[in-house]
Amino acid sequence: MSESYLSRAQYGKDKIRVFRIVREGAAHRVVEYNVTALVEGDIDVSFTQADNSVVVATDSIKNITYYLAKTSPHILSPERFAVHLGTHLVSKYEHLHKAHITVEKLRWARIPIVNDFEPVKLHPHSYFRDGEDKRFTSVEIDATLGKDSIIAKVTSGIKDLLVLKSTGSAFENFVRDEYTTLVEVNDRIFSTSIDLSYVYRPFAVPPLKDDLLLELAVTGDDAQEGTAWEADTVADSARKITLETFALDESASVQATLYKMAQKIIATNKFVDQVTYTLPNKHYVPVDMKYIGIDNQTPSEAEVFVPLSAPSGLISATISRH
Questions:
Q1: Which residues make Cβ contacts (< 8 Å) with residue 277, sequence separation at least 6?
Q2: Cis peptide before 280, with omega less than 30 degrees from 0?
Q3: Which of the following is catalytic: 92, 153, 260, 283?
Q4: Which of 86, 168, 169, 255 is deepest in the core (most CB within 10 A)?
Q5: Please, are residues 47 and 109 in contact by the beta-carbon 8 Å criterion?
Q6: Residue 123 CB: number of other CB atoms within 10 A?
Q7: Count of other CB atoms within 10 angstroms of residue 58
Q8: Nearest partner of 169 among 141, 154, 188, judged by Cα
Q9: 129, 205 in Cβ contact below 8 A?
Q10: What per-residue confidence (pLDDT) applies to 206?
Q11: Looking at 28, 58, 159, 165, which residue is catalytic?
Q12: Alpha helix ranges (H) inside the chain
């Protein structure tokens, strides 16, 4: 008798690079995505019996991704495109019951054109990379109850949003014992690379029409502004709240600022049920110049710092709606 069994299996294609131009006359819109598409279903025998008859090749999954990148009307929205791709996969293949789609969106912004005495104009087809942070979505398409009862579970957010404030942050009154060497400060640099994720309430995905096609109609309450289907408003809101709260909060700690950010996102976006931040400290240590009689250690006098990448603090928390 075997002492082990296959308890879960999934496979698919990772790092699918997609760039799409949507041509609207002289004006173009562009998106660049990194896509991961994984599937689950009745695929056990491919692992346990070396039977490939149930395997949709990962190359085919890549090709489906590019097909929908060309044909889907939802390509400009990471959430909508991910829902469409996952629904396509579980609808086309009867033996596949779940799809896990991750879409990471890289930043491109129109180049502003400045002419004397005229308003700034955004160029219709020229762009620049206006930041290294990335918007992302991770979507689970669940068809285990049937192809006409598909449920979408959507988590979205931001990765690698690097921020810094040169004052307005303190860290005091923490535990002190024989292991403590850290000095309490009432003014310090606060810098972190923000990873934010927020979880939408699940929603039903109507069956795809015809040949799996181009029309995926989500309607009613599930299509309201602020839902996963209308996610651009939440993405803008979450980014704005994160940046403004970071800037304006007189921070007593990373933990306290994190909690305020998450509370505001949930209060502002009624279809978001859960928010998680992960905030690694980016340490800037004032250079000790006492040896030449210069005070660069007192917080109000500290002006020259050494950036340190490691070791670093790592603070994370999840805040949920009641």
A1: 194, 195, 196, 258, 261, 262, 315, 316, 317
A2: no
A3: 283
A4: 86
A5: no
A6: 13
A7: 16
A8: 188
A9: no
A10: 84
A11: 58
A12: 44-48, 58-71, 78-92, 232-248, 254-268
13 included as an active-site residue = yes
The answer to whether 68 and 213 have CB atoms below 8 angstroms apart is: no
Please confirm, yes or no, whether 65 is among the known catalytic residues. Answer: no
- Cross-strand partners of 286: 305
- For residue 156, the model assigns a pLDDT of 98
Rg over alpha carbons for the chain, rounded to the nearest Å, is: 24
Mean pLDDT by 10 residues, the chain (322 residues): 89 98 95 98 96 97 97 94 95 96 98 90 96 97 94 97 96 96 92 97 83 53 75 95 98 97 96 96 95 94 93 96 93
- Check: CB of residue 33 under 8 Å from CB of residue 21: no
Active site residue 87: no
- Which residue type does 275 have? V
Which two structure tokens, joined as six digits, stand for 283?
């340490």
How much is the pLDDT for 216?
52
φ/ψ of residue 197, rounded to 5: -135, 145
Token readout for 296 is 């660069």
Alpha-carbon distance of 97 to 146, in angstroms, equals 8
User: Which amino acid is located at 123 in the chain?
Assistant: H
**Quick count: other Cβ atoms within 10 Å of Cβ 223?**
13
In whole angstroms, what is the distance from residue 266 CA to residue 216 CA?
A: 28
- DSSP letters of 27-66? EEEEEEEEEEEEEEES-HHHHHS--GGGPPPHHHHHHHHH
C-beta of residue 192 within 8 angstroms of C-beta of residue 281:
yes
pLDDT at residue number 214: 42
